[in-house]
Amino acid sequence: MATDTVAPEIKNEDSARGFGFVLTAYLMWGVLPLYMKALGHIPAMEVIAHRILWSIPVAGAVLLALGRMGNVKAALSNPRTVAMASLTATLVTINWGTYVWAIGAGHSLDAALGYFINPLFSIALGSLLLKEKMAPAQIVAIGLAAAAVVILTIKAGTLPWVALTLTFSWGFYGFFRKTLPVGANQGFFLEVLLLCIPATLYIVYLEARGEGHLYRTGLTDTALLLGCGLITALPLMIFANGAKLLKLSTVGIMQYIVPTMVFLIAVFLFKEPFGTTQMIAFSLIWAGLALYSWSMLRRSRTR
To answer: How far, in Å, are 76, 223, 227, 288 from residue 193 at the CA level?
Structure first.
C-alpha cells in the first residue's frame, strides 16, 4: 500500500499542460450528447447503471497506477465520509439520469440552459450557505438568470424542470463534494463504488427479464454500453488533474465550452426548435455570464 505524502503547494498560475488537460476534458464533455443520442433508444436508468458499473474498472486502474487506492480504503473505514459520499453519489446520479433522458428525449437545449445557469446558481449557493459576499455585478447576473427562467416558465406554462434539475443537482453536488475529505479521483471512485451494487442488481434484473440491452440487441448496443465507463470516468479524471494546474478564474471561463457545444449540437445537428422565447432567455443568461466572468476576472486581477 502506498503511503500518503504531503501534497506540494499548488501555485495559482496557468500552465500549458493544465490548459491542455482541461480543454480536452471539456471537449469530451461537449460532444457527449452525440454519444448519448446513440443510446437514446435505451432507457435512461439502464444507461446510468452501465455508466456506474463500467466506470469502476477505469477509475480503479487509474488509482492503482497512481498508487492512490489506500486513500479509498481509509475513506471506506470512516462512516461520516461514506455517508457524505453516498449523498454526493445520489446527487450525481440524479444529474446523470436527467442529462441522459434529456438528450434522448430531444431536450438538449434544456440541458445546455441548465449548465449555463449553473455557475450563477453556485454563486447564489455560496452566498446563502457559506456567507460568501457577492459583487454587485454577480447579483445582477443572478437576476438575469432568474428572469430567463421566468420567461421560459410563462411561455411553456411550466417550469423548465430539466434545466433546473441539472442546475440544482450539479450545484449541490459541487457544494457537498467540497466537504468530502478525499481527492477528486478517489472521490469519484468512491461514489461509483457505493453505487455499483444497486446498478449491478438493476442490470442483472433487466437482463433476466429479457429487457436489457447489453447482450440482447446487438454488438453496437453492447459496445456503447461498455464504453460508458470510459466516457464517464476519463474526462472527469483528466479534468481533475488539469484543474490543479490552472487558475480558478481560467477554469471558470473555460467551463462555458461545454454548454456552448451542447447548445450548438442541439440547434444545428439535432434540429431542436429555437424560437424567439428561447433566444430572449439564452440572451439573458449569456449577458449574466458575461457580467459574472467580468467580475471574476476583475477580482482575480485585484488579488
So the answer is: 10, 22, 18, 38
**Span between the terminal Cα atoms of the chain, in Å:** 41
Please identify which residue in the block is written with the cell numbers 463504488: 193
In tens, the pLDDT along 126-139 reads 888 878 788 888 89
Question: What does the angle CA 231 – CA 38 – CA 36 come to, to the nearest 5 degrees?
Answer: 45
Contacts 24+ apart (CB under 8 A), 83-90: 84/176, 84/179, 84/180, 85/180, 85/187, 85/190, 85/191, 85/194, 86/194, 87/176, 88/173, 88/176, 88/177, 88/180, 88/187, 88/191, 89/190, 89/191, 89/192, 89/194, 89/195
The alpha-helical segments, DSSP class H, found in 15-129 are 16-30, 32-38, 44-66, 69-76, 79-104, 108-129
**Does the pLDDT of residue 301 top 80, yes or no?**
no
**pLDDT tens track for 4-46:** 443 444 455 678 899 999 999 999 999 999 999 999 999 999 9
Here the cell at position 5 is 505524502
Rounded distance between C-alpha atoms, residue 118 and residue 258, angstroms: 12
Cell of 222: 453492447
Among candidate residues 40, 42, 35, the one with its CA nearest the CA of residue 216: 42
Pull the grid cell for residue 231.
466516457
Look-up of cell digits 442546475? 167
Q: What is the three-class DSSP state of 3?
A: coil
**Chain centroid, CA 68 distance in Å:** 23
